[in-house]
Amino acid sequence: MRLAPLVTLALLVLLAFPSAQPVFTGADIFPPDEFTSRRAKVMDAIGDGVAILQGTTERPGEQPLRQSNQFFYLTGVVEPRAIAAIDGRTRKTTLFLQPLNERRERLMFGPGLHPGDEAARSTGIDAVVARDEFAPILAVFGRDRRGLYTPFRPEVLGEASSGDPAALARATRDDPWDGRVSREEAFIANIKRAAPESEVKDLDPILDIMRAIKSPREIAVIREATRITGLAILEAMRDARPGMYEYELQADAEFVFKKHGAYGPSYFALIATGTNSLYSHYHRNTAKLANGDLVQFDYAPDYKYYQSDVTRVFPANGRFTPRQRELYTIYLRLYQALMTSITVRTAPREIVKSAVRRMDAILADYRFTDARIKAAATAFVERYRTSNANTLGHWVGMEVHDVGGPAPTLEPGMMFTIEPAMQIPEEHLGIRLEDMILVTESGYENLSALVPVEIEEIERVMREPGLSKKRP
After folding, report:
1. Can you give the CATH number for the domain in which 466 is found?
2. pLDDT score recorded for residue 381
3. What domain count does the chain have?
4. 42 vs 242: CA distance, rounded Å
C-alpha cells in the first residue's frame, strides 16, 4: 500500500523519537527501596498502629492519571482507587488494588498493576491483594483496637499546594447550595464505622516532617526539574520582544516542559509585563509586551511528582534602560545579600539579621539618582529589619509551596525559595527574583544559578534567536 507523503513523514518521526510517557510510575522515578525506606520511617513513628491511605480516583474525562502526593510518596503506585495499609506491628505493607480490567488497559492505559505476586515484586510491597479484601482486614484492626492513621488533608494532585485543596474543601462544605464533605472526610467516617473501637489519627504531620528533608534521589529529581525550569526561562528571554503577548512566552516554556518529559506545570504561569508586575500572582497572561516594559517571568514544571519555582526579570526589548538598570541593580544586590547570608543549622531570623547588616552597607554605598527607587530600596530593607518571622521563603518539593511548616533552623536536605519583592506602588511597578535553594552540609547550593541574573548576561541571552525565529 502506498502511503501519502505526510503520513510517511509522521511514521518516521514516531519511529525516530520514542513516545514519552507523561505520567510516571514509581519505578520510573525511584527504585522500590526508596519507598520501602519511607514506609519504615512511618512504622517507626506509629508504633503498634496502622497507617491507611487511599489513592486518587480515575479522572473525570480523557485526562492522564496523576497520583496524590501522600500516596505516591509512600508507595510509588499510580493506580486509581488503590488503598495501602502500613502495619507498624508486623512491619509489613499491604496494597489493595482493583482487579484486572482488560478493556480499560487496552483502550486507555496499557499494562497496569493488579493483585498478585508480580505487582508485589515490582513495587517492593509485601502483599498486593484485591481491594475487596480491605474491609475484612480493617475489621480485624478494629477488633484489635489498633490506632489507625490516615491523611486528614485533601489530596494534592499537581498544580496545587496543600492549602489550596484544603481551602476548596472548606468552601464546598460551607456552601449552603453544595455542602459536600471531602473524600478524606468521607474515608475517615467510613473507617470509624468499620472499626469503631479504633482511634483514628492524622498521618499528615508525620509525613510532613519526613518530606521536609529531601533524600539524595529526591534532590536529583528536583535538580532536573529546576534545570528544565531554567531552560524554559531562557527560551522565554530569547523569544521576548515588544508586540508579543504574555501567553506566547508561556507557550515557549510549555514547549520546553513537554520536550523534557514534564507532566505539566507546577502552577499557573505568572508572566507579568509592565504594570502587571505589581501583582505577585498575576496570571491572566493576556497583555501585550510594550517597548520599555520589564517582564517578570515565574513558571516551572511538574516533573516526576516534584516541583521547582524560579523567577526572573528581563526587558521586553532586550535592553535595560538607565532607570531600569538602577532599579534592577539595587534590588539584585540586596537580594544577593540575603542569599549569601544563608548558613546551615542557623535560624532563619538570624540569617535575616546578618543580611540586613549587609543591606545597610549596600544602601549607604549605592549611587541613587532616582528618589522613588531609593525609597523602594529603603522600604525593602526596613521590612526585613522589622520582621520577626523565622522564615526566608517557602519550601519546595512535591508541592510548590511544600509541607513542613516553619523550621527552627535550616538543616541539610531542606529545599526552599527566596522571593522578596521590591515595589514602587505609585508606578504600579514591582520587581522580584526567585531561586531554588538547597541547604547542604557546607551551606547552600543555588540550583537555579544557570539562569542569569546579571544585566549583561540577560542582555546577551536576549540577543540569541528565540523559538519564534527558529520555527518556519
Report:
1. 3.90.230.10
2. 98
3. 2
4. 53
In this structure, the answer to whether residues 224 and 165 fall within a common structural domain is no
Tens digits of per-residue pLDDT, 26-42?
Answer: 768 999 999 999 999 99
Residue 367: domain span: 216-470
Q: Is there a single domain that holds both residue 262 and residue 375? A: yes
Q: Which among 124, 113, 28 is positioned nearest to 74, based on CA atoms? A: 124
* Domain co-membership, 394 together with 406: yes
Predicted local confidence at residue 101, as pLDDT: 76
Query: Which segments of the chain have a pLDDT < 70?
Result: 1-25, 27, 104-110, 471-472
* Structure confidence at residue 5 (pLDDT): 38
Last residue of a domain, one of 180, 196, 212: 212
Examine the fold and report which residue of 180, 212, 244 is the final residue of a domain before the chain moves on: 212
Domain presence at residue 2: no
What pLDDT score does 12 carry? 35
Extract the C-alpha cell encoding 49.
498502629
156 and 225 together in one domain: no
Predicted local confidence at residue 102, as pLDDT: 75
Q: What is the model's pLDDT at position 107? A: 64
